[in-house]
Amino acid sequence: MSFQKFEEDDLKDSLVVDKQGYICGYVSGFKVGTNKITASLYGYEVKNTKIPDQDELIKRLYEFAPRKGMLNRKLSTQEFYDWIKESLNLPNNETVKIDHMVKYASDRNIVIPMKTEKVERKVAKGAIDWFCVNKIAFTDLGKCVLLDIALEGKKRGDVSSDKVSFMSTEEVAGKLVIDSEGKIVGSASKFLIGSPPGLSIILKRVVDEQKTFTPENLKRELIPSRFRNEKELLTQIKKDLNLKSIDDYPERAIVIWAKKKKIKFKQDKGNQIEDLMEITVSWDKIAGIHDVALLKEPIESFIEKENEVEMSVS
After folding, report:
1. Burial code of 225-235, b = ≥16 C-beta within 10 A, e = fewer?
2. pTM, whole model, 2 decimals?
3. 45 φ, ψ to 5°?
4. Would you list the domain boundaries of the chain?
5. What is the pLDDT along the chain (314 residues), one digit of tens a residue?
6. Ordered strands of the 184-192 beta sheet
7. Which CATH code for domain 167-211+268-314?
8. Could you give the CA distance from residue 185 to residue 162 in angstroms, rounded to a whole number?
9. What fold does the segment set 7-45+120-158 form as a domain?
10. 185 exposed, middle or buried (CB, 10 Å; 0-12, 13-18, 19+)?
């Protein structure tokens, strides 16, 4: 199969899918020999891992924190973080993170509360012969390399024929959809009863989204890094602005307070995936469906058929 020529870096992190719709992994790099090219793959492994419980650790450290004033009151959240910074000799402009609190506790033999959390770990997944590649395509949704062999399927013991078994809506919903050219085009939505049955697909695209300075975005940056919850943030704002109440205009007070404190807000660009349209694909047009759904034709042909159907109905 001949296709466009790429630099090695262009293909790194591409999703690699076999002909049955099983994910083999992602491209991590290439090894070029005299008569052979192989692509190394990586994947992700999810494991239950014990990590520090931040909320419980903060509660525990408050027990060791000094008290303030004649009333012997507990530190405010900002005072608490300032105390941690001072204890660890951190710069004033540094944000206190969980690692700092763990260090403080470890240095003073304070028991660190733990919790179990699923953690994704990057792992090596072997290599593939590059001449098994059938299609390569790039879309807004990602890079994909399609193989012309059932590489991963055989590893998992799937020796099924080319016939694609039916799957319920519960089984197909959310699966990535890739067309015959290797383009990632959207996700599966529903199994459709008919003769033949079909698959409902949501076509998607990525749009750039500019993160703007809003009270909600500001709150997300300050909680829980500097304040445990919104109530603590608003209490601090009320105190700093010397206000009896901010119940009538909390959003405006947050903006005024942020400007007064010269809090810098990160204006990062982000990507947002939006739905374009829903189309129906006849089940006999599905080449394989396991980790992902593979189509037998380019997506453009399905869109054209969908438009023809809509025009005939109208």
Report:
1. ebbbeeebbbe
2. 0.64
3. -120, 130
4. 7-45+120-158, 54-112, 167-211+268-314, 213-262
5. 556 788 899 999 999 999 999 999 999 999 998 889 999 999 998 888 888 999 999 999 998 888 877 777 888 888 888 899 999 998 888 888 999 999 999 999 999 999 988 878 899 999 999 999 999 999 989 999 999 999 998 888 887 767 888 999 999 999 999 999 999 999 999 999 988 899 999 999 887 655 556 677 777 777 766 777 778 888 888 888 888 777 666 777 887 888 777 776 555 455 678 888 999 999 999 999 999 999 999 999 888 877 766 555 55
6. 269-282, 198-210, 184-192, 176-178, 292-295, 286-289
7. 2.30.30
8. 23
9. SH3 type barrels. (2.30.30)
10. buried
CB 122 within 8 A of CB 44: yes
Which amino acid does the sequence have at 93?
N
Residue type, 118: K
